[in-house]
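User: Just a sanity check before I run the rest of the batch. Below are the C-alpha cells for the first item. I only need the designed sequence back.
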C-alpha cells in the first residue's frame, strides 16, 4: 500500500510541471513536498523543518502562518471573496490604494492592480506606450532596459528582459529594446566609479540621439535580482532618473523584488530619493500570502487617459482577479504589521548582523564576491578567487550548494553560480545566526571538498 508521500510523488511526476525547473533532473531524485509552515520554517510531508532561506522566492515578509494575516483573510472571507473592479470597486481595494499612495515615493497617486509582477510590468509598458499616444506624441514607441535585466516572463516583460538563458529562445516573438550596460562594479578595474560612468555614458549617448523615439526606461532600482543580486553604485539610480527627466523619457521602476523593506527602506527608490513615473510592486505586497501586484502611476500619466468616452483614451487592460478583496485585505494587514513591529529599522540591524556573519566567507578560495543590500544577499562562487575564473554551468555548483544547505536544514535557490540568501524580514537575530551558519558550512563543504562524485 502506498504511503501519502509515495502517492503525492507519483502524482507530481505524472502531472505537475514546475517553473524554472528541468524536469528530467527533478524526477531523478525524491521531490521535496512542503505540507505546512510556521514562523520562518517550512515543514515537509515527513515533518522535517527547513529554514525558509529565500522567503519562498523572495516574497515572504512576516513568516508563515501569521495569526494577524490569517485573521485578515478569514474576516474578509466572511464578507466577500471576490468582486470585480471593472466599473465598480470594493472596500479593501480602495483602502489599500490609499495606503500605497501614502507610502510609495512622492507623486505615485494612482494604483492599478494585477496578479503578479510580470503582469504589473506588462501594464507599465502598455501605460507608457499609450501615454505618449494619448498625448498626441507620435514616434515614442521604444524602451530602454539594462543588460541582464529580468522583469518577468510574459511577452512584454520578456521584451524588456536581457538574460540570454531565459529570453533568447523567445526573441523572434518579442519587440526589440535598447540595452545599455548595467554598472557591474565588481567586474571593472576602476570599481564603482568606472562602472557608473560606463552606464551613464551609454545612456547619455542613447538619449541624445534617440530620445524622440523612446517611451520609457525600465530598471530594477538599486539591486538587479535575477542576474545575481548586483548592487548599483551609489548615485546611479538618481542620475538615471535625472537623465530621463531631461530627455522627456518616462522612468519605470520595477520594485517587485526590492519593495517592502527588502533593501532597508520601504522601497529601493527611497534610498536615493527617486520618484519614478511608473512603479511596479508585487511579491511582498501581501506579506507573501496571496498573488496581488500593482502598477502605480503619477497624476500626469493618469491624466493622459482621463477623457471623454468618445476620445477612446481608456486603458483597455484588466484581469479577472484585479483588486481581489482577500488579497487586498491581507496586504493591508501586512502593512499594519510593518508599522507596529518597526520592520524597517529591524531590517537595517539584521542586515549588519548578516554582513558580519558572512564575512567568514570573504577569504575562502572559491568565494568571488559577496553582494548585499539590506536583506538581499548574493554570494558568487568561482573556481579561482584570484582570476575570478567561473565554474562551468554543467558543474551545477550553485545547485549542489543549495542541496547541501537543504540537507543541513535550510532552503534556498541559486542563480547559476550565485547562492541567494533572502530570509524573511521577520527572522530573529538568533534565526539569522543559524541560517548564516548553515550557508557558510554548505559553501565550504561543496566548494572545498573536491569534484562532485
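Assistant: Here's the designed sequence for the first item:
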Amino acid at each position: 500500500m502506498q504511503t501519502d508521500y509515495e502517492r503525492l510523488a507519483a502524482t507530481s511526476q505524472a502531472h505537475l510541471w514546475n517553473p524554472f525547473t528541468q524536469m528530467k533532473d527533478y524526477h531523478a531524485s525524491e521531490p521535496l513536498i512542503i505540507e505546512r509552515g510556521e514562523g520562518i520554517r517550512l515543514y515537509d510531508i515527513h515533518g522535517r523543518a527547513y529554514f525558509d532561506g529565500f522567503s519562498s522566492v523572495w516574497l515572504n515578509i512576516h513568516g508563515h502562518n501569521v495569526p494577524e494575516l490569517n485573521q485578515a483573510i478569514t474576516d474578509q472571507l466572511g464578507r466577500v471573496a471576490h468582486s470585480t473592479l471593472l466599473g465598480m470597486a470594493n472596500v479593501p481595494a480602495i483602502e489599500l490604494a490609499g495606503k500605497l499612495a501614502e507610502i510609495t515615493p512622492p507623486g505615485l497617486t494612482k494604483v492599478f492592480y494585477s496578479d503578479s509582477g510580470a503582469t504589473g510590468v506588462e501594464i507599465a509598458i502598455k501605460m507608457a506606450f499609450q501615454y505618449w499616444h494619448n498625448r498626441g506624441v507620435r514616434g515614442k514607441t521604444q524602451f530602454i532596459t539594462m543588460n541582464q535585466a529580468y522583469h518577468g516572463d510574459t511577452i512584454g516583460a520578456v521584451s524588456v528582459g536581457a538574460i540570454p538563458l531565459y529570453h533568447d529562445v523567445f526573441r523572434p516573438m518579442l519587440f526589440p529594446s535598447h540595452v545599455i550596460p548595467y554598472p557591474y562594479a565588481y567586474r571593472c578595474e576602476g570599481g564603482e566609479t568606472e562602472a557608473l560612468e560606463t552606464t551613464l555614458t551609454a545612456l547619455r549617448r542613447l538619449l541624445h540621439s534617440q530620445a524622440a523615439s523612446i517611451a520609457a526606461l525600465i530598471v530594477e532600482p538599486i539591486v538587479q535580482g535575477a542576474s545575481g543580486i548586483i548592487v548599483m553604485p551609489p548615485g546611479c539610480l538618481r542620475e538615471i532618473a535625472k537623465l530621463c527627466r531631461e530627455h522627456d523619457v518616462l522612468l519605470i521602476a520595477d520594485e517587485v523584488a526590492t519593495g517592502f523593506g527588502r533593501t532597508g527602506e520601504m522601497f529601493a527608490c527611497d534610498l536615493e530619493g527617486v520618484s519614478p513615473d511608473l512603479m511596479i510592486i508585487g511579491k511582498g505586497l501581501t506579506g507573501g500570502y496571496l498573488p496581488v501586484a500593482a502598477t502605480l502611476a503619477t497624476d500626469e500619466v493618469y491624466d493622459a487617459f482621463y477623457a471623454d468616452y468618445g476620445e477612446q483614451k481608456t486603458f483597455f487592460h484588466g484581469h479577472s482577479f484585479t483588486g481581489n478583496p482577500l488579497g487586498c485585505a491581507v496586504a493591508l494587514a501586512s502593512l499594519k504589521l510593518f508599522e507596529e513591529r518597526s520592520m524597517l529599522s529591524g531590517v537595517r540591524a539584521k542586515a549588519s548582523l548578516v554582513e558580519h556573519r558572512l564575512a567568514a566567507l570573504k577569504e575562502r578560495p572559491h568565494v568571488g564576491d559577496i553582494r548585499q543590500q539590506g536583506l538581499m544577499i548574493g554570494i558568487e562562487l568561482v573556481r579561482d578567487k584570484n582570476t575570478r575564473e567561473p565554474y562551468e554551468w554543467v558543474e551545477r555548483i550553485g545547485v549542489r550548494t543549495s542541496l547541501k544547505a537543504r540537507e543541513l536544514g535550510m532552503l534556498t535557490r541559486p542563480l547559476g553560480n550565485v547562492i541567494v540568501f533572502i530570509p524573511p524580514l521577520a527572522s530573529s537575530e538568533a534565526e539569522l545566526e543559524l541560517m548564516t551558519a548553515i550557508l557558510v558550512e554548505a559553501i565550504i563543504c561543496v566548494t572545498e571538498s573536491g569534484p562532485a562524485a
